[in-house]
Every structure is written in structure tokens, then in C-alpha cells.
Amino acid sequence: MDSKPAIVAxxxxxIGVSDKARSIIFYRDVLGFEVRDEAGTIxxxxxxxxxxxxxxxxxxxxxxxxxxxxxDVAALHAxxxxxxxxxxxxxxxxxxxxxxxxxxxxxxxxxxxxxxxDKPHAPGPSPMMLRALPELPCNDVAAAVSHYRDILGFRIxxxxxxxxxxxxxxxxxxxIARTELHTGIGSAYVYxxxxxxxxxELRSKGANVQGEPVSHPWGLRDFAVLDPEGNRITFGQxxx
Length: 240
Known about the structure:
alpha+beta; 2,3-Dihydroxybiphenyl 1,2-Dioxygenase, domain 1
């Protein structure tokens, strides 16, 4: 029995829609996603991909560009056509070594589906490295802890005079005293769900943001923040 083409890379997006029922029909019946209702939150799911729908006016229609990586782009392209979708023709994009097609959802959001033709997807070994824990040096650890709590939205996991362990959601950073062993400044890149929403939040709290979110051709939309010690944290939203 042949297996169905699958999405093989994680995607998590919240997109604006004008009609949730219409969006459900498109993502379920045309794209083949499973639609779930979790406590009133409608979510279209395909493997590690999660698309949530927002029908408020705050999130513009047709503004999203979402990329899905699949293990068989040709089969998925054919399946979408059979289900009544109108995808673009399959194209080879040499600079990213992928075959892709595009389709727009009922609200005009651009959906790209692609598969590498340079290194086809294959299951890898079990991961060895599980999580990073960046250490950011500070002259005044107590002041830095307050800044990360009050401005950047972290909570205090643990604190002493020369150390602050700060958590926000699944992310932990360690604020350490700047010494001869820990000189200069630090930096970290944090993957997030919604760059524009976090940018608005942090700017409203007075964070030292280094410009508005920018979308890059390699599939990340990000912006950077400097803490009072000069450490840089860049927050990036994948597949934008």
C-alpha cells in the first residue's frame, strides 16, 4: 500500500481568515489537513504543521507566506489537483535546491510546498543535542534579572547575587556575572511563533528593539533586542 505524501518539517502559524468554515473546507478537503477544534481554537494539522485561524480584524487577510516541506512534492501536487485545488506548476528553484509549487488559500495567503532534490528527506538518527542554554554576561546581575522579568517577559527560575536563571515558555537564558572568564557580550537566537506580536509587546514595554521585524529569503522573519548590558537576543519566526 502506497503511503500518502507527508509534511516533514514543523510549521506553526496563526493566520487571518474572513470565514472559518470556508478555510476549514479548503485546508481539509483540498490540502488534506486534519481539522481539530481544541477548546474553541480551530487548527488545521498535517504531521508537524499547525495552522490556526483568526477571524478578528487585527490580523490582515492575505498577508501570510507559509512554507511546508514535504517528502513527495509531486504526489502532493497531484493530490491537490485531484481534490479540486489550483496549484501552480512544479518548478525547480536552483538556489535553494528544491522543487516547489504554490497555491493560495481562500483569503489569499500564499502557501508553498517544497521538497529538496539535492538531499531528499530521510529519517535521521535519534537526536543527541536536545536544548541550548545561552549564558549572557552582566555587570549588574540583579538589574539584568529585573529587566528580563519586567521588560522581556521572563520569569525568575532561580536567582543569586551572580546568577539569574530566566524562563519564558520553553526558553531559558542564564544571566551570569561578567568576570575574566566571562567577558564581552553574549547573543542568542530564539525561535518564536509570531514575530510581529512579540515585537509589539516588547516595544510597548520599552525594550531596546533594533528595528521592526524583517522577512528574509531563507524563511525567517526576525528582529533583535539589546538588553542593558549590550547582549543581543534575536527573535525569529520560521517559514515567514
